[in-house]
Amino acid sequence: MVGFLLHLPVPTPPDACGITYMAVKKSHRRRGLGSTMMREAIARYPNVELIFPVKEVSFYQQMGVQVIDAENTQVVMNTTSENTPGLMGIVNADQILHSPQAKKIHAQLVGRLGIKMMANAEKQLQREAASYVHTRLATH
To answer: Which domains does the chain show, CATH number per domain?
Structure first.
């Protein structure tokens, strides 16, 4: 496998879904695989919503996805100009976040950077996402 796109359908409306994760193996990037997966998802579900970091926005904008809001440290995007109505299934990441591997990485970062710097970094990411969305929505 060289890539995948994980989406969760929204029961109402039936043409909506949320993209929860997409990845392409590093050795196969910049060959159009991500674009192809997104085009296929949009063809199947014209109302696609996703949430990604600011640095990923330009890729999804090329697919016709619009910036509509900020959520915590992420930018909310949709193929329409508003949030997807209806409820999307939620991926529970608690098992991942509380896994021994994640705890080890977090402890290493706290040990290297300190808890205060980690908290400040998250706040900075939140401000960056909110500022980016505010600027984008003000210019459109």
So the answer is: 3-138 (3.40.630)
